[in-house]
Task: inverse folding
């Protein structure tokens, strides 16, 4: 049904806790019949893992609606580890970054005039993200207020999210808000969602 995904990202879990939390979330989705323990690589293109859990008998309960009754969703990939998650068509840079201390917004890709990132503006974020992925810490000094802010606290433009645990639902119809709320409650953390195409 097309090579698209909806992604749920836990934006609060630490890398150390992500593995155990992923197992709990999988156990819960299996118990609910949303997925099975059987895995498959067919119809999924997550960068970090090559297999996901096949949908279970009750998969529709997580979805808002199913326009085509013949619809069969693909696997659900579970991605553990600090990473940058990109929606849309998957650009490697955020289009903007907003400082949580002073609300100043740094433009990185000046749409619609430009489609390429301002490398100079992006570099401090890129460096901090690499450092965060390796060590769990990385900060960027705000060009306006001068505060040194952990890179995980910057608010990036839509479709760019940092997190240590994510779930890619490949080829599923839109997930419903109740499922989003239940996932967030099960994880015990705030989540963000993305959609994108391979
Ligand atoms: Zn600032």
Result:
């Amino acid at each position: 049904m097309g090579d698209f995904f909806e992604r749920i990202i836990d934006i609060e879990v630490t890398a150390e806790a992500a593995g155990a939390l992923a197992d709990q979330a999988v156990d819960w989705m299996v118990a609910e019949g949303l997925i099975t323990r059987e895995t498959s690589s067919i119809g999924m293109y997550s960068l970090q893992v090559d297999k996901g859990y096949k949908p279970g008998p009750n998969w529709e309960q997580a979805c808002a609606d199913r326009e085509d009754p013949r619809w069969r969703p693909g696997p659900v990939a579970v991605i553990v580890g600090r990473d940058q998650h990109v929606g849309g068509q998957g650009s490697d840079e955020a289009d903007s970054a907003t400082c949580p201390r002073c609300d100043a917004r740094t433009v990185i890709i000046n749409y619609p005039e430009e489609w390429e990132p301002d490398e100079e503006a992006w570099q401090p974020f890129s460096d901090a993200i690499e450092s965060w992925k390796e060590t769990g810490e990385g900060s960027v000094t705000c060009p306006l207020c001068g505060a040194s802010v952990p890179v995980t606290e910057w608010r990036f433009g839509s479709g760019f999210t940092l997190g240590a645990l994510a779930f890619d639902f490949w080829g599923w119809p839109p997930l419903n808000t109740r499922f989003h709320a239940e996932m967030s409650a099960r994880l015990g953390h705030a989540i963000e969602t993305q959609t994108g195409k391979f």
About this structure: The mean pLDDT is 93. The CA atoms of residues 96 and 107 lie 5 Å apart. The longest helix spans residues 15-31.
